[in-house]
UniProtKB/TrEMBL annotation:
InterPro entries: Rer1 (IPR004932). It is a multi-pass membrane protein. GO terms for cellular component: endoplasmic reticulum; Golgi membrane. Involved in the retrieval of endoplasmic reticulum membrane proteins from the early Golgi compartment. Belongs to the RER1 family. The keyword Membrane applies. It is found in: Membrane. GO terms for biological process: protein retention in ER lumen; retrograde vesicle-mediated transport, Golgi to endoplasmic reticulum. Keywords: Membrane, Transmembrane, Transmembrane helix. This is Protein RER1. It comes from Buddleja alternifolia.
Length: 188
């Protein structure tokens, strides 16, 4: 009855494993936090990862379903990145909203999906997709041009809707230079 009290070797091994997992999680979070201000370097690394993934899929001539799923997920992330936190069409809010008229007060654009979380989700998605290419059960035989056409149509329709939303509510989801209120612009 030695194992019932919780003093056995399996409990000690589980505690040691939990301790190692906690230390690894803290170390990972430390380096993730250190990478936050280095946006350009983070995106370059993700670009390299995407290029390596594309090369692997190209040389294997397979895993098109994985790539299609990755493309759909990336499109979903892009929509979250380009969308405002509070959508004026969906939910009225007491907090900061997008200005709808030229006379409205200037309010900064707040994303539904912040840049860091956008980058992290994309990087994680490419890592998972890359790992999936090592397992043949994910290599489902499909006619890839059809998947590409489906994805392109979905991308065009979704981006068209998003751009129309941007035009209707007059917001630009990118920071270009210093943000200045339209009423306070100085003309020299």
């Amino acid at each position: 009855m030695e194992g019932l009290g919780g003093d056995g070797p399996s409990t000690a091994a589980a505690a040691a494993l939990n301790q190692r997992r906690h230390e690894a999680s803290k170390l990972f979070q430390f380096y993730l936090d250190k990478s936050t201000p280095h946006a350009l370097h983070r995106w370059i690394g993700t670009g390299v990862l995407a290029f390596v993934y594309a090369l692997r899929v190209f040389y294997l001539q397979g895993f098109y379903i994985v790539s299609y799923g990755l493309g759909i997920y990336l499109l979903n992330l892009l929509i979250g990145f380009l969308s405002p936190l509070v959508d004026p069409e969906m939910e009225p809010s007491d907090g900061p909203m997008l200005p709808t008229k030229g006379s409205d007060e200037f309010k900064p654009f707040i994303r539904r999906l912040p840049e860091f979380k956008f980058w992290y989700a994309i990087t994680k998605a490419f890592c998972i997709a890359f790992l999936m290419t090592f397992f043949s059960m994910f290599d489902v035989p499909v006619f890839w041009p059809i998947l590409l056409c489906y994805w392109l149509v979905l991308f065009v329709l979704t981006m068209r809707r998003q751009i129309m939303h941007m035009i209707k509510y007059k917001y630009i989801p990118f920071n270009i230079g210093k943000q200045v209120s339209p009423q306070k612009k100085l003309y020299i």
